[in-house]
Amino acid sequence: MQAGKLRSLLSVAILALMATFVAQVDAGPAAEEPAQSLAATYRVFATREGLVGRTTANGHVIRPRDRFVALPSWSVLSPKGSDKFRVRLTYKGRSVVAPVWDVGPWNTKDDYWSPSRRYGDLPVGLPMAQAAYQDGYNGGRDERGRRILLPNGIDIADGTYWDDLGMTRDDWVEVSFLWLGADPGPGGAVGITPGTPATIAPVGPPPKPVEVEPNATAVDDGAAGYGATGQPWFEAGCGMSGKHAWTYSTTNPAKATATASWAPQLPAPGFYELLAYIPECGSAATSSARYRVFHDGAVTERPVDQQAAAGNWVSLGVYHFGGAANEQPRVELGDLAGDDKRAVRFDALAWAPRQDTAAPDARVTLIQRKENGYQITWGGSDGMSGIATYDVQVRLLPKGGWSDWKLGVSDIGAWFGPDEGKQFAFRVRSKDWAGNQEPWPEGADLDTTAATP
Description:
Number of domains: 3
Shape: elongated
Radius of gyration: 36 Å
Distance between the termini: 126 Å
Strand content: 25-35%
Helix content: under 10%
CATH topology of the largest domain: Barwin-like endoglucanases
Strand order of the largest sheet: 1-5-2-4-3-6
CATH class of the largest domain: Mainly Beta
Mean pLDDT: 87
CATH superfamily of the largest domain: RlpA-like domain
CATH architecture of the largest domain: Beta Barrel
C-alpha cells in the first residue's frame, strides 16, 4: 500500500517537472533578475535647521555650515557619525545626498514615507505637519499639541541648505528616501559633492541689493550703533551686507529674552522718516513685530507684519529726533510678538530727513453746558511733526468781534463763563512743532446755540 502511494507521488512530481519544462520552452529564455526598484520620492516643504552649537538627536554637535537633515521619526535616525539612513535632496537644478542625523520638525513618530505609517488615514508621502497646517488635521496641532506654524516635513542643515542646494529661503524640495530603494540619482539636476562649496556656482538670481535712500543715515545689524542682548540668535544669508540676524518670536513676556537696538549718529536734530528693511529669505516671519521708537523724550510702538513686508523697506512713521537733551535717538526690537515660533528679523534701519511744510488742521469739536457756563473742547491733527499749541478766539453773538481767549496753549479744552444768558461763538487755530501755523477760519467752528446739555 505504501509502495503504491510512493509511485503515485513520483508520478505527480514527474508531471509537474514536465509542465515546468514545457512552460519554460514556451516562454523562451529565462528573464534576468529584476533591478531594485527606485527609492520613493516626494515633494516636501523644507526649512533650514541652523541651531549651530546645539546637539542633534544622535549626539552630533551642530557645526557652522553642517551637512545633514532631520526627519520626524526616530525610526530612521542614523547612529552618530554614520549615514545608515540617507535622503537625496533635489532643488532648482541641484541634487545632493545627506544623512539623517536629527529628529523633527514638529513630530517624532511621523514616518510619512512608509506604506505602514503611523497616521494611516493620511496618504503616504504627506507629512502630518503639512496636513495639519493646510487642512486642519489633528486640530492643526502636532503630536505634542503645539499649533503647527509651517507645513515642513524636513529640516536641512546650513551647509546642505545654503551651499549644496543654493537655497535662500524655505521652499518645496524633492526628497528621495534611499533606504526604500535604489538611489534615483540627480536626474537632470547637477549632482553636488557635499563639502566643496567653493566649486559650486550660485543657482538662480543672487539676493537683491538693499538700496538706502540718498542722504539717509542707515544702521545695519552688526554695524556701529547696533547692539544685541539675550539669546538665541541666528543668521540668514540675505539683507543688507548679504546677511541679517533673526530669532524666534514668543507671546510670553517671561520667555522674551532677545532684544536688539539701533542708535544712529544723525547729522542734525530734525524730522526723519524711520524706515526698517525686512529681508525676504528664511522661514516664515512674524506678522506682528513690535518696534519701539525713542524720540524726543517719548516712546512710540509700531507693529509691523514682517512676513507681508518681506523684501521691502517699511515706514515706521515720521518723528523729530534730537530735541531732547542727552537723549540718543534709537529703536528697539525684541522677540516678544503677537505669535509664537516665527522668525523676527533684525536688519537695517534708516533715518531719512524730511521737511514739514504743511500747516496742521484744528477746530472746536464740542460745546457742553456746564454750571453757569460752557465746557469748550477743541483738537486737531498734523501729518508730520504734531501740534504744539492752540489759539482760541471767542465773540459775542450776534454781531460781536473776535477776541483772543486762549493763546499758545497745549490744552484741548477749558471752561468758559459765566454766560449771563448770552450766546457766544468760538474758533481755533493751531501751530505744529515745525512752526507751521494754520490761518484763522473765516467763521466760527461752533457756537453755544448748539451746546449739548
